[in-house]
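S.,

Sequence below, as promised.
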Amino acid sequence: NQSENIDYSSLNTQTFALLLAKYKALLLRSDENEAPFTVNDFGNFISNLGLEKYPYVGGAAPRRIIPVDAGDDLIYTANEAPPDQLIPFHHELAQVKNPPVYLFFYCDQPSETGGETALLDSTVVYRYVNDTFPEFMEKLKTYGARYIRTIPAEDDKESPIGRSFYNTYQVKTKDELEEKLNATEKLEYEWLDDGSLKVISEPIPAIKFIGQQEDHAIYQWTFHNSVIAAFVGWEDCRNDRKKSIRFGNNELMDESILESIANFMDKNKVSYKWQKGDFFALNNRLVMHSRNSFTGVRRIYAAMFGDVDKKKMAVQPNLAAPGVSDLSALSVPNPLTFGMWRVDDSEEAAYNAIKSGYRRIDSACDYGNEEGTGRGIRRAIKEGIVKREDLYITTKLWNTYHAPEHVPLAMDRSLKDLGLDYVDEYLIHFPISMQFVPFEKKYPPEWTNLEGNMVIVNNDINQTWKAMESLVDTGRTHHIGISNFNCQHIRQVLSVARIRPTSLQIECHPHLSQEKLIRFAREAGMRVTVFSPLGGTSYISLNMATQGDLLFHNPLLRQLTAKYGKTTAQIMLRWAVQRNTLPISKTSSEKRMEENQALFDFYLHKEDVEAINDLNLNRRYNDPGVFCEGGMGTFCPIYE
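The prediction came back faster than expected:
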């Protein structure tokens, strides 16, 4: 459902990886007035992409090496199963623990009829199975799958799974093979009287969650296994396809469920007809592929690779700085953040959020509930729901503590209230410096001093940032960042930063898309976390929004709820995730917490993301330039 024309010559390592993360598959075809690409063109292209080499170990299909100028071990034949046989859908080598990341196919000779390569989005399959057979899905998630196959001593070209055990495991002797098999925990094998080898694999994960890939937001569950491929296609004189798989706990799988999944796959596939010289590149983490039956001669060659070779990946100069050169430091698999602003019972909210799957908690001194938040976090840890290192806890420096000598005091107070030794991230809450209010006199100080006045003071925010850096040096926080800053505020901090900010937190929703600010922050190496992703809902009771501002009534969003079978909130949260931002949501309802987590079994199409982008009105609800004057009598614009 998404397509884009790409200039072949522009595909370097970085653009290739980003395109495969975004579109999942690429078809490269020469212009009509040019000669078709040759197999040597294909070999040169894939060898220059900067990908890690991947040995073909563990595959069932016999292959022949196709030597090319770029190397003798780079390209081989695709599965050469007899033409009347359908090769079922699968992720390549999903039956091994570390499958290839990228697959490539080249057409040397298209078939007379049929022979299309069919593709299928793995997340679509995941959602079908999860919605239709939840108990089956839960067992796959919990136990994984075991694969049973009898492997011949010599390649059997009459079988789609006839690769010999010598070639399958890349060994020369049986002793070498047994040494390799014995090294794999829980794998079982048996030598049969005819000299073949029966192998029962160790339990292999069958469902995978794909998060970031080359700085592109994926965040999708995938049906990443060879279960259906085995059930449908692992049949020959040595193997019975119905006995080829079981759950990782050795329980048999329901054949009727497997048949239903196979039928669903066949009905939802997209088949591509080959032309001579075509290249196909597939993201094996996200896309399943199969081969339709055919007549005539068909020659398709294949290659597979691991991930991008990081040494060959171009790095943006502004990322090569202390604190942000490795963005994986901020990685928690789940991108969703639970916010503690204006929650009814902070202890229960934090505890239930973690129990429902949230691993990011957004707190702040100003929320006035860090003691309860900390109790909820510690309770979840004590009960074994999570370990401390599984969580990503953020809190914030309030406006009255911007003087360098007050920064560590504010940090220590938050740590004391939270009952934690450290936080993962500490943010400057606003680029607004206000008169200091002693901790023992009023805490949290909110927006006014002891006389009830909001007093803005002169302060060098660069000195505040240097004090923030000292918190990283002393281990109180692992990362530091900023919140509610505009582009110029960010430039000011970057101009002096020894430790650059790793995160920017801003208001963002379909009525305030903030495209330029998000782009600026990300190009400066920051993750972007967004609050109020559902729009003005939380501001109505504060008289900062009206019923007319509610996005839940928007006609476009309501259309999309019907199209995707999701709630309006889920559509907006998914939009935020696909824009590579981390949305902060909050609710006191455990049911809603679970609903808000159900974002990873669908993907908004490109045209729908763009349609939501077009809802932008630059409508801001949390604006000190408005509420400070109305509530405290102090004019304090920061976004203009």
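Residues 314-330 have pLDDT under 50 and may be disordered.

Coffee later?
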